[in-house]
Amino acid sequence: MATTAADIKALREQTGAGMLDVKKALDEADGDRAKAIEILRVKGLKGVTKREGRTTSNGLVAARVEGSVGTLVEVNCETDFVAKGERFIALAERVLDLAVRTGAKDSESLLAAEIDGKPLQTLLDESNATIGEKIEVRRVARLEGAHVASYLHRTSPDLPPQIGVLVALDSEEIDTARDVAMHIAALSPLHLHRDEVSEETVANERRIAEETAREEGKPEAALPRIIEGRVNGFFKDNVLLEQSFAKDPKRTVQQVLNDSGVKVLAFARFRVGA
Hints:
This protein is an alpha+beta fold. The protein has helices at 5-15, 19-28, 33-46, 80-83, 86-102, 107-112, 120-131, 174-187, 199-215, 223-238, 253-260; strands spanning 58-66, 69-77, 114-115, 118-119, 136-144, 147-153, 163-169, 244-245, 248-252, 264-271.
C-alpha cells in the first residue's frame, strides 16, 4: 500500500515522532497505522539510551492551585514541534496530576512515584520511545499559604506556557497576589529578601564593585559609598521585595505588599530551559 503525505502527517500528529521515522514505519507496516505505531514504539525503546545525552531545552510549565497549596512542574523535550503537540501536553498534564496527588516537592520523588502501577520514569521512557525525543521532568515546586496564586506566560502564541510562577501569601488578597505573580514572571527575582543571598555572593559583588570603581578611577575616599551603592543595586535587581514594582515602578514590591496588608511567604519561578 502506497504511503501518502496525509498518512505521514496524521501519524506524526498522533505520535509526535519525526517525519522520516514515521515514513519508514508506515512503509514497513505496509500502510497499517496501528502496526506502524508498534514499530515506532519498539524502535523508540531501543533508542532511549541513545537519547540520554541530548539537550531538552524546550517543553512547558504547568501549574495548579487547590485550596492553600500550589504545584508547579517543568516538563522538557527536545524540540518546539513536540512541545506544542497534543501528546506531550497531555503527558505533562498527567505529570502535574501526579505531583498534586503525591505532594512531591522535587523531581526525584516525583519520578519515583507510581502512575498506572509503574514509576513515572518508566512512563517517560515509554513516551520517549513513542515520540522519539528525550522527555524529562526537570523541576517541581510546591508552596503552601493562606492564599496561593499562579501565573503562566506564553513567550510565543503557538507554544504552551514557557514561564510559570507560584506565589504564596499569608492572607487572601487575590488582586495583589496576581499582580506580584505577574511581576515575578517579568522581572525574574532570585530571592525573596536579601537575607537569603549567600555571604559568598555578597562578598563577590563587593569585590566586583570595588574593582570596577578603582578601574574607573574613583576617589579612594568615595569607594565605600560607591561599593555600598552598587551592592544595594544588586539587591534591588535580584531580591523580590526590593525590586521596583512592574506596574508602578515608583514603588517597591514591599511597599505594594504593605499597602495591601499582606506578606509573601515564598515564590517559585520556572522558565523552560533556563
